[in-house]
Write a structure and sequence with these properties.
- There is one protein chain.
- The chain is an alpha/beta fold.
- It has two domains: 7-233 and 304-311, Rossmann fold (3-Layer(aba) Sandwich), CATH 3.40.50.300; 239-297, Alpha-Beta Plaits.
- It is built from eleven helices and 14 strands.
- It has helices at 53-60, 81-84, 102-112, 117-130, 146-157, 176-191, 203-209, 227-232, 248-254, 275-287, 302-311, and strands at residues 7-20, 25-38, 42-46, 68-73, 76-77, 87-90, 164-168, 195-200, 212-217, 220-226, 239-244, 258-264, 267-272, 291-297.
- The chain has a six-stranded mixed sheet with strand order 6-7-8-3-9-10, sandwiched between helices. It has a four-stranded antiparallel sheet with strand order 2-1-4-5.
- It is globular and about 80 Å long.
- The relative contact order is 0.14.
């Protein structure tokens, strides 16, 4: 695979086979995954639990060896220390020392990168400010919420000022407030010039954050490209109407046009599947002197694409350039 100037992560037909059980049965966890992460983007690596996301990330980080294929970080083999020195990593289920405070925790990881003295103290203060944890600088980690642990974990991944930040399931197990905090932090990292790759099965978060995504299912890559391009192919023409004060006889005229009708107290929600049906329904509403409260086209989403890929037989694909 050719290394492009703006590509900092490449994998070419990356595979991992595990032997399980007494008889050493071969299980393919990752099957020929080829993808690219480009400088300055937020890249989402999506798939259901058990799809192979974590296994792929562990291979990219050099934590486990591939059974086949190759991968590079910053143009160097994945085991090369010079490439790994530019990466910050937060695993899916990290273990932190419970009785360290935030500052002690970050100081420990700073020492691993050779940071000492005032340089390290300044870096710790900057990171605590970045992840909105200044108020908890002297609080022990055992007293942190799940969201706070994720944020201090991301701060740990940034202690060496990396060019690439890899986060494995950073939103997993978080409540809506915690997820928003992590989303905001990822956006701040992008604004500061970092490249971010994160795995997730929470598609709404990925759609809000990502420039490009790759979808993996049962170890095989089934989609890869810009979010707008991927969901454009799943564009739906359904339109949702919410109508107030619609008389029963007018409703009977709309029923043949609607794919679905839902009564919401005195209001009625109607789902229409074509522009012609929308025009005819609007004529009925005007003639009946009813009130049109809302007219909402249904927007295609990553969730629609995800479900379509999950329910259909798909072939592996190469990352789109």
């Amino acid at each position: 695979m050719d290394v492009l100037s703006d590509g900092i992560v490449h994998s070419d037909r990356l595979s991992k086979i595990f032997k399980v059980g007494f008889w050493g049965r071969r299980v393919t966890a990752v099957d020929g995954v080829s993808l690219e992460v480009r400088r300055g983007e937020v890249f989402g690596f999506l798939g259901p639990n058990g799809a192979g996301k974590t296994t792929t990330i562990k291979m990219l980080m050099g934590l486990i060896y591939p059974s086949g294929g190759t991968a590079t970080l910053f143009g160097r083999p994945i085991g090369d220390p010079s490439g790994k020195a530019k990466v910050g990593f937060l695993p899916e289920s990290p273990y932190f020392y419970d009785y360290l405070t935030s500052r002690e925790f970050l100081r420990f990881y700073g020492h691993l990168f050779g940071l000492v003295g005032s340089v390290l103290d300044k870096r710790i203060d900057e990171l605590l400010e970045l992840v909105r944890m200044t108020h908890a600088r002297d609080l022990q980690l055992r007293k942190f919420s799940k969201g706070m642990l994720q944020r201090i974990g991301i701060a740990q991944a940034l202690i060496n000022d990396p060019e690439l930040v890899i986060l494995d399931e950073p939103m997993s197990g978080l409540d809506p407030i915690g997820r928003k905090e992590v989303r905001d932090l990822i956006l701040r990292l992008k604004e500061s010039g970092k490249t971010v790759m994160f795995s997730s099965h929470i598609l709404h978060d990925a759609e809000l954050l990502c420039d490009r995504v790759a979808m993996i299912m049962k170890g095989r890559l089934v989609a890869c490209g810009h979010v707008s391009e991927l969901i454009a192919g799943d564009t739906t023409h359904e339109v949702e109407m919410v109508i107030d004060r619609l008389l029963p006889e007018a409703l009977e005229r709309i029923k043949p046009l609607a794919g679905r009708i839902v009564l919401q107290g005195e209001r009625i929600m109607v789902v229409l599947s074509s522009q012609q049906a929308v025009d005819q329904a609007l004529d009925v509403i005007r003639s009946a002197k009813a009130k049109l409260v809302a007219l909402t086209p249904h927007k295609a989403s990553l969730e629609d694409l995800f479900i379509r890929k999950a329910t259909g037989a798909q072939q592996p694909v190469e990352a789109q350039v």
